[in-house]
Amino acid sequence: MGLHECAAWIRENDSFLLLTHRRPDGDTLGSAAALCHALKRLGKQAWLYRNPEVTERYEPFVASYYAPADFRPAYFIALDIADVTMLPKGFDGSVDLVLDHHGSNSQFGLMNEVRPEAAACGELILDLIPLLCGNLEKEEADLLYVAVSTDTGCFCYGNTTADTFRAAAELYEAGADNRRLNKLLFRTSSRPRLMLEGMIYTGLRSARDGAVNVAVVTLDMMSRAGATEDDCDDIASLAGRVAGNRVSVTVREMEPGRCKVSLRTDGVLDASAACARFGGGGHRMAAGCELSATPEKTVTQMLSVIDELWG
Amino acid sequence: MGLHECAAWIRENDSFLLLTHRRPDGDTLGSAAALCHALKRLGKQAWLYRNPEVTERYEPFVASYYAPADFRPAYFIALDIADVTMLPKGFDGSVDLVLDHHGSNSQFGLMNEVRPEAAACGELILDLIPLLCGNLEKEEADLLYVAVSTDTGCFCYGNTTADTFRAAAELYEAGADNRRLNKLLFRTSSRPRLMLEGMIYTGLRSARDGAVNVAVVTLDMMSRAGATEDDCDDIASLAGRVAGNRVSVTVREMEPGRCKVSLRTDGVLDASAACARFGGGGHRMAAGCELSATPEKTVTQMLSVIDELWG
Asked: What is the ipTM of this complex?
């Protein structure tokens, strides 16, 4: 279906519960809250499902949209959710309308509007809201800026296109406070996260003249940093920051004697083949595996396989 | 004067040397190299002044545009240079055309085109090149993307506006390889820089329940990290990343017994007043000073003044 049909269906109905995905990010939450705000402007009853996994960072953006306990919705709308397995914890109903941008979307809704070329689901909602309300309000622009900017790493990731930049221009003109939001989303980290990053950087090891870089995160480091899972977002990208890096390995001790490995390459060797040696898998440029070994032994084993597969 | 007059003057003349500013950044270099490429397309003789302070990061973008030793230019064009004091080392001629975006520009050229509302000088060159050549080529788009993205911290700094996003969309469509360039410019750091960041993060101190954060960079840390001045870019922003920060202090030991202080606040106290106590100055939100003291003593003295001035 198209966006116009989505808008028509929404206008004809009432009483919506908006769903966000597991381990919710800025895109699912910002998109859902922005649409919720617009639906309320239309005079609809609309609320967000209280996703139990919302982190501290995003809670302030969505808390005022959570459905009251006695809300009995007639319809369910899923935002940025690629598949039923990604529906939020505790929800087991069926979905009426799916709004998403994942190419892999399994079209699990009664109606589905999926735009795989969009960098963020927020781009789609940015087009939908004016069809519903005729304009975009500042609160919606802020929420959609959260959606688009977080899904593109502040316009830095490879998914950023001319359309993304144009969406950002539109949001800025509708009042999105990019200065305040960027400070909060991209230039602020928890103290434990900075401590952990610091330990990772000072402990970086390298091989092959710096082309291979290894980051290790032990349970002891996590505890000394006071870090939790929330502080480990995108931690597997840090080793790859070193100038000249071609292959990065991140080893995380999950419990004594068990380590998770994330392997990323520029293509010089097949990451999934390397991880398959230990029962793991993934893609050529990024793969993972688990070893029953100490962090030290895990590093040694990974380096040895990398040496063997190096082209 | 306006951009059309600039374009007309350039078309009527020939033999240009393009100047970049001291401690050149991506904006001055990207703008100059892009304009140089366009001038060559017009059949003009045009080269970049060989700025002796170009860093390793930017050298590959500009090296092919450096003037040969025997080039005798008829005209000089300054890009992104706010004042004669910022003309590149070794240059002492007069400037014919100034193209810039600094509100403080002293209009030191015979002709001056300054656009203070632009986030980067590159935005101005993006408008100038099509007036000269009718279109924008991929090489120019890449160079202007370097200009605009670095001056806005990849669209994250507060100077980013709707016009900046629109410029980025235009550059993307003209072929700018934002994926490759972002990786190089924003997701890559030298090993010494990462090591130094790591030491700074693990050594962060705080006061007033985390509202005050202090980063210390000693000569010993610099030496252990193998870091040089090139690795210290924007180092004074790191302490301010901590969630809940209101006042950040960065103390750099310049030589034994002498420290430079950078103080940044959200306005809770006047940074320039605090720094004035030690003969320094600046603005309310950002100021600096130098103390003849060890890093330890410098931290103690700064914390004591902060305590005294806290609102």
From this structure: 0.91
